[in-house]
């Protein structure tokens, strides 16, 4: 999936948005945060400052320095990620990290370490103090921090530069005929290259050591702290309980359709589908097999890929079209983020540089420099990815006036959900007809079921994968599973939640989790699961605001809503985004939806026609 980059919150426990922002949170945001916390080492001791003095200090001197250092850090990270084999840029990044960590540790020890949020009456100051007192990886000594940084960088580099031969020519010359993961291997279902598991062991040990120094039991607990809920594990388990029956019906239907296609070659007698027949490197989305499982092949269908090519869309045209959607809602124009002359990278370089192609959105913390980094292909999938990444950019811009420590999503899932909420509207046949990317489409019950199936193969099929990655990592970080069980435990979860199995025998000599970017790149993943729930809550709310949907009327189903050009929907969205993380996420959720809880009911409401159809069809077998 995707990740975003920014040091919005500057707290070490939230490595930053894929997007992680974090979506993402790999070594880089560590650098960003370390830089931030190094400010003003000679500041007066905590006891010397009253509540008002601390507020003023954080809003003035700290604010100015933190923003400036964030800009510098993100520039260094950008330079590295767009030229990852450049030794000089790697060294600069590492040296700055170590230097910053030393200063950060001194500042934390002398000033922030013993701050107690409960000592302050001001609620916003409490939230600031809660973040500032956590040092993060800088708690390690220089030798161990260097080792952790190198391990994470090596894993990311191996992931990004690994190449394989095509299946039809497995003895190819890798220097001439190889495929790289993004975008070539993702376009065909191939096999990945694993890196040495010992790197991950180093990463786990040192990450946990740093986390314990910050008064958490392990890194999983630190990551979960971002959601500010003592019952978070139970909360997400409850969400899975809500959606699992629907997933089970989808899985059963897809398995049967694949069996019809492959016959005796495909064994699903144990209720598990081999992972290699679902059309995706990680089996996280099944949209690539839509043609095999779509219920009504003769019904009208949406073929945006053909329209994009026929109308000679360029990569830039795709970005402009996405920007126009946001502007139609009265939101902030975002042309700067895809302006290559201003630094954006929206296509894979052809000058020989190795880059991290994983799509990401960047906030350079100066109020005007925002960029997208993406190796874009001209197809509908990347058209939707663009809307997702620009959702991050819009969020950055909306909360830009918040204090630097509150420039973050209300929780990590919020950042992931915004662009996907927009994409739900963009992908409706109704909208695609409006922007001339779909013609000669006949709306019908059959066409609607097909469209919902296409969406479910992405959104619903993803849910167990989005859940299990961090469940597996939480078990690894906590020591619940030992290193000699890592791979078997991975497949236990994949069988339990996804109901998929490895196509060939696996053992502890393999390290299959490492084939996922977010595992290699130190980026928490549960945000995507949360986002897949949130986006339907947001979507329903915006549809109601736009007058496109009424829960009390069955005349127009939720899945047909398009809030394009709705200023009312844009105003509601803007109000929620502008809060950043200055309030608890439940406050932002209530403002945007009227509810304070994560709830899968809108998702089930959206897919209800398909869910009903699947149950009817599956009951016949």
UniProtKB/TrEMBL annotation:
Quote the Gene3D superfamilies the UniProt record gives. Answer: 1.10.1370.30
Is Signal there in the keyword field? yes
Write down the CDD domains for this protein, in alphabetical order.
M2_ACE
Catalyses which reaction? Release of a C-terminal dipeptide, oligopeptide-|-Xaa-Yaa, when Xaa is not Pro, and Yaa is neither Asp nor Glu. Thus, conversion of angiotensin I to angiotensin II, with increase in vasoconstrictor activity, but no action on angiotensin II
Binding-site residues for chloride, renumbered to this chain: 227
User: So where does this one cross the membrane?
Assistant: none
Q: Does the keyword Protease apply?
A: yes
Catalytic center at which residues? 389 (proton acceptor 2), 389 (proton acceptor 1), 518 (proton donor 1), 518 (proton donor 2)
Top-level class of the enzyme under EC nomenclature: hydrolase
Query: What are the EC numbers?
Result: 3.4.-.-
Which Cys-Cys disulfides exist here? 357-375, 543-561
Q: What is this protein called?
A: Angiotensin-converting enzyme
Q: Which organism is it from?
A: Zophobas morio
